[in-house]
Every structure is written in C-alpha cells, then in structure tokens.
Amino acid sequence: MSTVGYGDLTPSSLLSQVFTLFYIFFGILFVFTGLAALMSTAFAPIVAALRSVLELAFPGQKVDLDADGTPDVEAPPAAWLHYAKGLLPEMVVVVAVQVGAAQGGRVWGRGERWREDPLGRRAPVYNR
To answer: Rounded to the nearest 10 degrees, what angle do helices 32-57 and 79-103 cross at?
Structure first.
C-alpha cells in the first residue's frame, strides 16, 4: 500500500497527503488483515498435521480415576511439552514460509544473480 522510494512521486497538496495517509491505514487495517486470514486458512491443514504428528510422538498419559479399568482423563503434560505442541507447528510453518520467501525466485526455478553498480553496491538481477 505504500513504498519507500526516491521521492520522485510524493503527494504535494494537503488533500493528497491526507488521502495517502488514509490509504496507507486502509491497506494496513483491511488488506493485510484479510491477507493474514487467507494465509491462516491456507496453512491450517499443515499446522493440524504437524500437531497430530506431535501428538503421536508425545501421547498424553491416560489416568483411571475410579479404578474401573478405563481411562477417565488425560494427565496434563509438562509445561514445555504443552507449549511445544501448541506453538511449534505454527513456528515451523512461519519459518518455512520465511525461508521460501527469502529464497526469492530460486524456489520457483527463476534463479537469482547479483550485479555490482559503479559504486560497488550489489543488486539482484532476476532471470525472466
């Protein structure tokens, strides 16, 4: 919704500055929250699968309270395990998405090269 550029295009009048301010807030409040909800829905099955894998790897301990031979409740796990089961799957998905995004076009086979400008700064050159 907004960019940091060279300043060649800037709102000059007060009305255009106010419009740009509201446009940026609109983008942050509505567009990015909608995008976050969409991504959450898209990655929910992956997170659920990772949680089920953790549940299989670290099953809860069943407790028989009334001594009838069938478990009545599940004992709570240690605090670290409880929080790991809740947070670790989402952290794995977030890190995987961040690493994939950091790889840029290389993940999708576009490749990436670097070039140096006359001042010695490196800039990416993408294969199209």
So the answer is: 130
124 contact partners, CB below 8 Å, separation of at least 6 = 104, 112, 113, 114
Q: Where are the alpha helices (DSSP H) in the chain?
A: 14-26, 32-57, 79-103
Question: What pTM did the predictor assign?
Answer: 0.58
Report whether 24 contacts 1 (CB < 8 A): yes
Q: In sequence order, what are the beta bridge partners of 127? A: none
- Identify residue 61 by its one-letter amino acid code: Q
Residue 100: its pLDDT value, please?
A: 81
- With a cut of 60, say whether residue 61 has pLDDT above it: yes
Task: Output the CA–CA distances (angstroms, integers) from residue 78 to 75, 88, 110, in the order listed.
Answer: 9, 15, 46
Structure tokens at 11: 């709102």
Confidence of residue 24 (pLDDT cuts 50, 70, 90): confident
Looking at residue 107, its pLDDT comes to: 47
